[in-house]
Design brief:
Blueprint lengths: L1 H18 L20 H5 L10 H14 L10
Length: 78
């Protein structure tokens, strides 16, 4: 029982550390990004990793990327 409690506590601490890292942690600083492309938080309403993303928010973000960028294509096939 004590081992399960200890492992659960360690996992919770690790998960809370991961949730606190800013988006800049995942994006290299030496690369310039297209300012016309919206950040995910601008479309989905919260930072990546802050909360689970729902299907509809992901769908609308992908549509927006395809609309703005020439590097993304949206094709409906089913």
């Amino acid at each position: 029982m004590k081992k399960i409690l200890l492992v659960s506590l360690l996992m919770a601490c690790f998960a809370s550390l991961l949730a606190q890292w800013p988006l800049s942690y995942y994006l290299p600083k030496e690369i310039s990004y297209n300012s016309a492309i919206p950040k995910p938080s601008e479309i989905i309403g919260h930072d990546v990793g802050e909360w689970h993303i729902t299907h509809d928010k992901l769908y609308y973000y992908m549509l927006e990327l395809a609309r703005i960028s020439d590097r993304a294509v949206w094709e409906e096939y089913a």
